[in-house]
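idk why but the lab printer keeps eating my pages so im just putting this in chat instead. protein + nicotinamide-adenine-dinucleotide:
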Amino acid sequence: MTHVQGKSSAGARPSSIKPATGKLGILTPGLGAVATTFIAGVESVRRNQSQPIGSLTQMATIRLGKRTENRSPLIKDFVPLAGLNDLVFGAWDPIPDDALTAAKKAGVLEERDLQPIAKFLGDIKPMPAVFDNRYVTRLHGENVKKGKTKRDLAEQLRQDIRDFKKKNSLDRVVAVWCASTETFIKPGPQHATVEQFEKAMERNDDAIAPSMLYAWACIMEGVPYCNGAPNLAVDTAALQQLANDRGVPISGKDFKTGQTWMKTVIAPGLKARMLGLAGWYSTNILGNRDGEVLDDPASFKTKEESKLSVLHTILQPEAYPQLYKDFSHVVRINYYPPRGDNKEGWDNIDIFGWMGYPMQIKVNFLCRDSILAAPIVLDLALFSDFAHRAGMKGIQEWLSFYYKSPMAAAGLQPEHDLFIQQTKLKNTLRHLMGEEQITHLGLEYYQS
Ligand SMILES: NC(=O)c1ccc[n+]([C@@H]2O[C@H](COP(=O)([O-])OP(=O)(O)OC[C@H]3O[C@@H](n4cnc5c(N)ncnc54)[C@H](O)[C@@H]3O)[C@@H](O)[C@H]2O)c1
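predcted complex ->
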């Protein structure tokens, strides 16, 4: 088989992808630990004071063609992504702190990293948020929009997006939710169709949370929307339909950073070797504002659902009952202020092997939540903008790589295995750029 550059069997046409001209605005609902660490990091990289460590769009390569061709460009040289110098940041937050004050309060970055970019961060001030304390009970903020109906509030968000675009002479805008985890909401009839959703907004139905209003406003303004929290938000039939109708890429839910990222690395390893699992106990301590919000059982329930789904989908107990039926899975988050953003996670994994003999794996992960999340925000923003220019719309399953609770089409099991997700991501880029898929078969190297 010969490799033909620039053609794919699926007929993708890179020439039809709009170029990344002009400036790209990145809006974050939420200007807390994750958002400020992300913004500060990008600015620091732009000034050659840091490296974009953890970001695939900035550091990873992608193999193209046969191994003998030795073609492995950087992803950013292969795919037309917006450049870091073309990014402009904006945010909404019920707490009026500018990005410098918020970053200092979050306590993730040290003074030596903040001081050189203090003016830049100080100039980023959050727009008034759509915020309702009933959905995030531990927070109280005064930088909040007023409106008679939820629809009024969402319309104000749309106006903010238009103003932000105009004021900064932007070509395009994307949004990444970096705000708090809301209380648990189950999909109901209010989320079933666009019509029902909009009617529910108009009658101030409780089933419509602030995060859904941001998602609706973004989609209406043609702004790709990425959901970094486990909130239902854009993961409803109504908003998926709206995104499809309006040709807007959406993705979610919940950034895959610390313990869950580790789970999606270790669990595929156990399954690949057909080793059994009796139980997996995860606990952690963290002391940032996110930890405080999650201290409320209603917000924790949203997070717990997101964290629990991972192992079942990877291990498939239905297919392997001898190995994975009825394993215990417990997830705890403990708010412990002295730890700040520097989370410590413990996993105790009870596994069994040949003839049923038990073994244990212990993981003690001293991580920094926002340091792990910031490059994910960057990649999601750049890839979603690229997807939009490439004509992609609706759920972007190829971005599952970045999420704990990946969204998938109705009736489809989400893919949780990090390595399958990585292959899917890279193959999507190859597909969109008209390159052949890599199957890793490799028999051709051994045929004389
Ligand atoms: N850091 C991680 O590793 C990680 C991983 C997965 C998910 N997340 C999620 O990312 C989100 C941000 O995390 P963080 O550590 O930055 O939290 P944070 O508490 O520091 O920041 C969240 C900010 O969102 C604001 N906010 C709350 N409701 C809002 C609304 N309706 N509109 C606009 N702003 C609103 C809060 O005032 C706060 O400033 C959380 O939902 C968290 O669960 C974080």
